[in-house]
Amino acid sequence: MAIPRAGDPTDAEMARAAQAGDASALGSLLVRHRPALLAVAVSLIGYGPDAEDAVQEASMIALRRIGGLRDPAAVAPWLRAVVRNVCRTQQRSPAHVPLDNSRVALLRSTEPGLLERLEQHATRDWVWKAMADLSSPLRLVLMLRYFSGVTTYQDIAAACGVPIGTVRSRLSEARGKLTRALLATADTAHDDARKANAESLRQAEELMAATRRGEPESALATSWLPTVALSGPEGIRSEGYGLLARGLEQDVLDGVGHRVTNVIASGDLAVWEVTMQSPPDDPFHCPPGAAWVMHLRSGWVRQGRLFHARRRVPEHACVV
Asked: What is the pTM of this model?
């Protein structure tokens, strides 16, 4: 750990500033404690790229969770604990690391007040600005990993249509670039992320409302290009949103309920997550939820990929 010089802010002072939204303070904390964090990672998983990845992962968690730190003076042991947890999780399941639910809670919620949670999170717009400077492929894996419920490497790979190894390499590259970009953009205030997320949320909720009225195509026409390229489970592909509109209409006729639980938008990318409620007389009619990964052009959806959440099988159940 770097020893603060006379006149330097204390850990507690920097932690309080970081909790107030000062990215430079959090960046300084991470720089100050990086040697100690890397030492923890090396002691648990050995020296090499995995240890570096663990520290980068811990830095991302710190960015998301610093606001929940109760004792700012304890930020150093808290950071070390985050690294230890990341390393232990990697050791248990390196290819399918689930995201701690508490890291998703700010944005992903099935409770009322999604917009309020969205706006609360978007006060840290410097995070979104730094993400916006990444390439679309790197930005997408970060958006899914840290701001959605599609968090395992396997599910991210399915949602993006790429191999798991590509997900791992993109996440590693993106984490490194994001932490460096955060320091470079820390002093600038940005409100673009709040506006982008609010607009995307409005579009998602309008589509769900129009679907319930039996008019999904009218809502799709306001933000989806007529030539939109769509793909989905089992290799389904189509051009235009007609097939999607008919699918949503059929869901209503079948008694399926949809509710928006999470919306994230950054530049030319947006992700919508919805829960899906099967009709009471057919509890396995549809998957428990879905996520739309959308690529935009001037605010219009030009390409969309549908990902269905996998239904969890109880541990005591027998799978034939």
From this structure: 0.63
